[in-house]
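Work Package 3 (structural annotation) set out to generate three-dimensional models for the target panel prioritized at the project kickoff. During this period the team completed the workflow that converts sequence records into discrete structure tokens, so that structures can be stored uniformly alongside our sequence database. As a representative example, we reproduce one entry of 208 residues exactly as it appears in the project archive.
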Amino acid sequence: MSTKAEKKQLLKRDIIIAAKTYKENLAGKVFLYVYGNEYFELNFANGQFLHLTGVGTKLKAKEFYRRAKDNTLDAGQFYFNESHPFATAKRKLQCLKCLPSLTTELVCVLKGLNTLTFTYKIGVTNLQFTLGLTENVDCNGKKINNWLLPRTLRPKDNSIAKSNDGEFVDYILSKSATKEKYDCICYQDSDKAFPQELLFMVDEKIRI
């Protein structure tokens, strides 16, 4: 049986790998998910990475992510306990390392995703794991913009059955968070037409 120190080293390794993946594929980007006549924009902000790992820490969220991506995170700077179980963190981190797949492959958009502690208006799942999304608000609860943020990562939790409704995505586009229009197609269903009313959000160089 692994010691606590060995378990922490295992989690540390996976956190660092996941942070590198997050940095290279998701951080600083916004993704447009189009399904039927509906859409939402998802921003993978630096401060959201910690919420997806399953571990506890006394570090601020952005500092935790910075140390993880720079490979300077120390095993003493995070913990697991009854509130943050080792087994749960281990499962979450395996999914977190594969998180970019939710932006490049067919996924299901969930509406009214119910958990024990919260109901997420929107979720995204590939049936292996699910992201619960929340609005981008400040510390006073005031809405900053229309982007959604990832708040929870849930490995294989039968999320479709726990949701009020679900619909497969038709298109996923991306852009830098500093740009105005989407300039990259990450996924598309060739049988579906892109909504004309959303073309104003897409760079003219993109044939869609």
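The beta strands are 29-35, 38-43, 108-114, 119-125, 129-137, 143-155, 163-168, 171-176, 184-188.
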